[in-house]
Amino acid sequence: LGAKGKKGKGAKSTDELEGWVEKHRYHERRVEQIVRMIDNEMLSPDQVNGIQDQLEYYLESNQDPDFCEDDGLYDELGLDDLPEEKEDDDGSGG
Questions:
Q1: How far apart are the C-alpha atoms of 93 and 70, rounded to whole Å?
Q2: What is the distance between the alpha carbons of residues 31 and 51, in angstroms, rounded to a whole number?
């Protein structure tokens, strides 16, 4: 009586899993933006090397119980300060 159907110790809730998916998508979008900016010579590979260790830490350890996410991972690249690239850019240089 009164049992609320508790999940096993390692089970994750749907909300928790959706949160992880959204975080991964955020990082995926940022990395794609960085690659485009390097291709367009808006960022240099040397600039990106500065966050390589932090990004590898995220990729390797994001599921660890003691993982501490760096909310400012991309700050030093100034991605928010740069103009957004249009996804429908026809490459005509306009």
A1: 36
A2: 11
